[in-house]
Amino acid sequence: MTLLFREEPQAGTLPVTPVPATLVRGGTSKCWIFRDEDLPADALETDRLLIRTFGSPDLRQIDGVGGASSTTSKAITVAGTDPDGTVRYRFAQVAIDKPAVEWASNCGNCATALGLYALHAGLVAPTGEVTRVPILNTVTGLRLVCEIPTPGAQVPAYGGRRLDGQHYPGVPIDVIFQKASWSSYGTQFPTGNATDDIEVDGKRYQATLIDAGAPAALFDAQDLGLDATGSEEALEALVRLAPQLRAAAARRMGLPQDLTSIPKVGIVGPPPAGATGVSARMISMTALHPAIGLTSAVAVAAASGTPGSVVQRSVVPAAEAGLFIHLLKGTTALALDAADPAEVSFQRSARVISESTILVPSD
Predict the structure, then answer these.
(1) Contacts of 229 (CB under 8 A, 6+ apart)
(2) Burial category of 121 from C-beta neighbours within 10 Å (exposed 0-12, middle 13-18, buried 19 and up)
(3) Beta strand pairing status for 323-326 and 278-284?
(4) 224 with 180: CB under 8 angstroms?
(5) Residues facing residue 205 across a β-bridge
(6) Which of 235, 257, 234, 233 is nearest to 246 (CA)?
(7) What's the CA angle centered on 276, arms 271 and 282, to 5 degrees?
(8) Cα dist. 282→16, 124, 258, 267, 327 in Å?
(9) Which residue among 85, 101, 208, 212 is least packed, with the fewest CB closer than 10 Å?
(10) Does residue 20 have a cis bond before it (omega within 30 degrees)?
(11) How far is CA 78 from the centre of its chain?
(12) Please, which residues bridge with residue 29 across strands?
């Protein structure tokens, strides 16, 4: 028997590029934040660098900084700060199972991380007891505001806010989405309908196709024969069907067909017995999200005030303003005007974990 081995470069012959980066936990995600000035000028070379940095397409990302899940394979690149203090950035979702990077979506949790990073890195100076950090995704046009406590005009290193889906607390950050910029492709309801029928394998499923926070396809759980309060094991059928649902919804919404992360796919249904709000389960890349991305939560919130949407039909209203979204793990609370959600606010937290130099091989 002859064993064939691929010849590997000799030690010391492979160039390695040192790249400064900061790891920040934002909400329920971890995000590596880079400065544009430290990355290649060529867009394809930046993609290659990020893929190798994270260790894709190894499913374990064992030779990179990725954490082998959609919530830990994320990056932000920062271009700088405008004269009005707005931080300009791009969000990158680094695929795990293939060598690819998608730039055409938003991530509210990484935006939370960027708000704290902007203060930590001196991009924005703290002002008074609370500092407002406006940020702009230059790819999608999404504008957000992060409100961060800065007592005595000092940047906090740690904080005591802990939310569902987070084992440890962090610096309190309120993240504000505004309707004026939360549609990435121009209109909140691309088809003009509150509900559409999506056909997959000859079967039709009711969905609300919405572009708010990020494009999303929200399906009626009951229509799929599922329970929106179900466990991960009970929703394996949704995970299997999600790629087909996403592709069919993307065509109906007129979205680019070469993207695999949008629209976000999820199911909604009534809240658990005795509770108010709505239940939701979202797919993140190829698995159930343990909680919910903030952009997906914006989509659910925006649809909750639209008569006839699959979300509005499932909501059990509360006496107080706002909306509770019941998730696989925990609950997310949103502050909004339920009748006409023109602004959605979230309570999140963040922590700067590491200031690093990543050594990136040229292979």
Answers:
(1) 269, 271, 272, 279, 326
(2) middle
(3) parallel
(4) no
(5) 198
(6) 257
(7) 40
(8) 38, 34, 21, 7, 9
(9) 85
(10) no
(11) 17
(12) 26
Q: 253 CB contacts (<8 Å, ≥6 apart)? A: 185, 190, 191, 209, 211, 215, 217, 263
Looking at the DSSP bridge assignments, the partners of residue 220 are 268
Q: Tokens for 135, please give them.
A: 């940020």
CA distance 331 to 280: 10
* Tens-binned pLDDT, residue by residue, of the chain (363 aa): 334 434 555 555 678 999 999 999 999 899 999 999 999 999 999 999 999 999 999 999 999 999 999 889 999 999 999 999 999 999 999 999 999 999 988 899 999 999 999 999 999 999 999 999 999 999 999 999 999 999 999 999 999 998 877 789 999 999 999 888 999 888 999 999 999 999 999 999 999 999 999 899 999 999 999 999 988 888 898 989 999 999 999 999 999 877 777 899 999 999 999 999 999 999 877 788 878 888 999 999 999 989 999 999 999 988 777 889 998 888 887 877 666 677 888 899 999 999 999 999 988
Phi, psi angles (nearest 5°) of residue 281: -135, 125
Cis preceding-peptide flag for 317 (omega within 30 of 0): no
Structure tokens at 334: 């949103």
Is residue 248 within 8 A of residue 202, CB to CB? The reply is no
